Automatic annotation (TrEMBL):
Residues 22-129, 139-269 form the EamA domain. This is DMT family transporter. Signal peptide: none annotated. It comes from Halomonas marinisediminis. The chain crosses the membrane at residues 27-45, 57-78, 84-106, 113-130, 136-157, 169-187, 199-217, 229-248, 254-273. InterPro entries: EamA_dom (IPR000620), EmrE-like (IPR037185).
Amino acid sequence: MTGGGVLLISPDALLIKLIGLPDAEILVWRGLLTALGFLAIVLARHGRGAAAAYRRCGWTGIGVALLFSLSTFGFVLGNQYTRAGNVLMILAGAPLIAALLSRVFLHERLPRRTWLAILACLVGIALIALDDAGVGSWRGNAFALLAATAMAANFTLCRTRQDVDMSPMLTLAGVIVAATAVLYGVSGPGITLPAGTTLAWLLVLCLGLLPLGFTLLQRGPLYLPAAEVGLLMLLEVVVGTLWVWWLLGERPSPAAFAGGSLVLGSLLLKGLVDRRVERRQRTRDAVQHGLC
């Protein structure tokens, strides 16, 4: 589920390039259109029980919506004020932040293989971002750190209510993003809906891919520790780079190839090890159950 969500949002950077709108306008339309997309998904899944699905989230859901909004602002504005390489390297720290938050607040212990995969992926993301990294603006770096921390805190907060699906509250998150952009003048005067190809790509991204992808991602903490969800999100960097290379001809450097291979290899190896451990555990449980 989490991996599928990552693949759906992986063309995000590519489509933002194709849309070509300023970051300020992206915030407004991204917020409004994703809110409509999330609402449509909730109505399709729950029908007449949609209102109850929102109520079940309670105050925890409001916290999830606020944190998701902060991560959106941090990601978009971070790319505006500093280099993309800086943002990528800072965002790669999200699994570590999630692991620390889960350890402190939820007392969750991660197996050694997860820590090794996190460290390997950090190295891989650093290689991908190497050519684009620089000193950057302290403001942009701060926004990127905000995005990473808010993302990690969001997944950790979801783990406190493992019996409740928090994805409906992403509707509120979209409204918060759009409203905040307008209230604080981020959008500027006279914003109008774009037309033609720009509108088509905007609708594909914000009404389709992002709502579907983030709904799946937001459900990930129901089944996985927050750090595991954050770790799988690093796959977006690799797949997103491949999208841009394939369709826009922006060829990654040899270092980026090596980094992407390290991330993909680490996640694949960890997945195979996890599967083997789960099979052993099921066999052990079946034997114990038979003895009882």
